[in-house]
Design goal:
Layout lengths: L1 E5 L5 H11 L3 E5 L10 H6 L7 E4 L2 E4 L1 H11 L13 H9 L1 H15 L13 H14 L10 H16 L7 H12 L1 H10 L2
Amino acid sequence: MIKLYWSPRSRSFTTLWLMEESGLPYERVLTDISTGAQKAPEFLKVNPMGKVPALSDGDAALGEAAAICAYIADRYPETRLAPDIVDPERARYLQWLFFSPGCIEPAIIQIFTKIEIPTSTAAWGSATQVFDVLEAALAEGPWILGEKFSAADITVGSGLNFAVRLFKMVPSRPAFDAYLARCMARPAFQRAEKIAAG
């Protein structure tokens, strides 16, 4: 049985949404990060970083939301959450799957901390560039790969949900609003949001 280690009002939302979209049976293991449960030796065997979300599936164990999305989409192809390994669309899928942790999250931190980092040395370029590039990609829609919803939409949609809708750190744009509305209309998103609220 797949076990998803999670905590309410945390980055666990991405993987809750993933598991709800997948249709796979899974057990939610509540991990109370306010008490330090994520630092317990048993949990550190699943994710040595001591963070949620984390996932175990038989002998496999991993952390990091985007990695969990990649694992589930590839390990369970019947979920149809990723292009086939030989599909040319796979390249864009992988780029966008990791865009949230690699670009959106650092851009949010840059905005929040107001740290000026030269675009030539920041791995994500700049916050402005991140959201301009994302806006252009989403304008084609309805999903990040066009007509096909994928696990990449889960990572990108979660990142935008936090940046634009929940924390209002990134100004709303018409393409973002339309994309978030499509994400929020998905029954799996709605179920995940109820679970994540605790």
